[in-house]
UniProtKB/TrEMBL annotation:
One of its GO terms (molecular function) is catalytic activity. PROSITE patterns: FAD_PCMH. Keywords: FAD, Flavoprotein. Residues 37-218 form the FAD-binding PCMH-type domain. It comes from Malikia spinosa. PANTHER family: BLL6224 PROTEIN, D-2-HYDROXYGLUTARATE DEHYDROGENASE, MITOCHONDRIAL. This is FAD-binding oxidoreductase. GO terms for biological process: respiratory electron transport chain. Belongs to the FAD-binding oxidoreductase/transferase type 4 family.
Length: 462
């Protein structure tokens, strides 16, 4: 089938306005959020329902055009960006944005893939419930992309990655078949848990069109505190003490270097309410029961008395909470204003964080003496954003290999929450064991034998 014939068939199936071919209309679908990758698809499709997704997949497959699913296009690894061959079609789920059902008793939400995360959060909040996936891009990230990338965020410590929230999925697979597993069962041991095949696989095995997500009660009380600590090792002592003192109420535990917050102060004009320190911890706890503030303040007093922390403050209002979180959330933007940076989204065992940071710093500074380290992240779950500010001519691939080698020496992962996409494919192949890659290839071949769905992402082109 020619390109013209495919476009005609798609317009007849989806409607004239659902098939975009004009260069200006296509532009937002052609590049990733960071503008690292840019492609040129034949067209972009905007289906309105699952049946149209399935029809589009069947037509593209018959014509020999691969499909690149796209949600909010907020990913950081180029996982939703087409190539420049003109033989790919972007399939956007943006129009499939309905909230189908909220079950207040069962604490679940059934939602279409194109629904923006923040929209879903606000809808369940009206029912006194919480959708506890929290991302910087929650105002534009869509549910299908969140599921397909197994997104993380600041609440993973307590509520888990996106995978932990998924109870059921509706998926269109490579032959255009719709698999409806939109069950809201907390217990279901009837055979393979096939939904797991589509969570975190970035649209390479199937296109998520809807999901049932598990909610949580909305906490009535929240406490946010910022602490200064002398070292990363001291931050782990704080983490252990916090777990003992306030236990399951601990929602977030962010580690930020003094260098990171110096960038924020300089470029974002945000005031740090503590004395200068090598490291800082941003701690958040939430509960439905009273007494949380008193327990957290008591914890802070003990930490200062035992010299695990050198300074600290507890937010006294929602405004102060927002100001403390703004310090953390502004790091990436401040880093961008400082100059070129090479980013690493890595994870190591929590207890290994201090040793990883020390070894990575030593390796980077030895190989790239002019480089500056900007390290921060979700230390409560072992995820560190190990970013390196470098001069324009520095070889990014060489720096990536160096950092990732240190990560792997600790049994860590080169992608904690941002996915592989196309950005990290070569490093994935280099760092993963051959047996792990082989079993991934077998699953891909079984579900998508012609490498038709999002080719070149997660696994290399064969």
């Amino acid at each position: 089938m020619s390109a013209e014939a495919l476009l005609l068939a798609l317009r007849q199936s989806l409607g004239e306005l659902a098939v975009l071919t004009d260069e200006r209309d296509l532009e937002p679908y052609c590049h990733d959020w960071r503008h690292m990758f840019k492609g040129r698809p034949l067209c972009a499709l905007l289906p309105r329902n699952t049946e149209q997704v399935a029809a589009a997949v069947r037509l593209c497959a018959a014509a020999g055009y691969s499909v690149v699913p796209q949600g909010g296009n907020t990913g950081l690894s180029g996982g939703a960006t087409p190539d420049d061959s003109g033989r790919q079609v972007v399939l956007s789920l943006a129009r499939m944005n309905a909230i189908r059902h909220i079950d207040v008793v069962g604490e679940t939400i059934e939602v279409e893939a194109g629904c923006v995360l923040q929209t879903a959060q606000e809808a369940v909040a009206e029912q006194g419930l919480l959708l506890p996936i929290s991302l910087a891009a929650e105002g534009s990230a869509r549910i299908g992309g969140i599921v397909s990338t197994n997104a993380g965020g600041t609440n993973v410590l307590r509520y888990g990655m996106a995978r932990a929230r998924v109870m059921g999925l509706e998926v269109v697979i490579a032959d255009g078949q719709v698999i409806n597993g939109l069950r809201s069962l907390r217990k279901d041991n009837a055979g393979y848990d096939w939904k797991q095949w589509f969570i975190g696989t970035e649209g390479t095995l199937g296109i998520v069109t809807a999901a049932v997500l598990q909610l949580a009660p909305m906490p009535r009380y929240r406490v946010t505190a910022l602490l200064a600590v002398a070292s990363a090792q001291h931050s782990l002592a704080v983490l252990c003490a916090a777990r003992r003192a306030i236990g399951e109420t601990l929602t977030g535990f962010e580690l930020m270097s003094g260098a990171a917050l110096e960038l924020v102060a300089r470029h974002q004009q945000l005031r740090l309410p503590l004395t200068d320190s090598a490291w800082y911890v941003l701690l958040e706890a939430s509960s439905s029961l009273p007494g949380l503030r008193e327990a957290t303040e008591s914890l802070l007093g003990d930490l200062l008395e035992q010299e695990m922390a050198t300074d600290g403050v507890v937010a006294e209002s929602e405004r102060q909470e927002a100001e403390l979180w703004a310090l953390r959330e502004s790091i990436t933007e401040a880093e961008g204003k400082e100059g070129r940076s090479i980013k690493h989204d890595v994870s190591v065992p929590i207890s290994a964080i201090p040793a990883f940071l020390a070894q990575a710093d030593q390796a980077v500074q030895q190989a790239f003496p002019e480089a500056r380290i900007n390290a921060f992240g979700h230390a409560g779950d072992g995820n560190i954003h190990y970013n390196v500010i470098v001069a324009p001519g520095v070889d990014a691939a060489a720096l990536n290999r160096l950092v990732h080698d240190v990560v792997c020496s600790f049994g860590g992962s080169i992608s904690a929450e941002h996915g592989i996409g196309q950005y990290r494919v070569s490093e994935m192949v280099r760092c993963r064991a051959p047996a792990e890659l082989e079993i991934a290839r077998r699953v891909k071949h079984a579900l998508d034998p012609h490498n038709f769905l999002n080719p070149g992402k997660v696994l290399p082109l064969q």
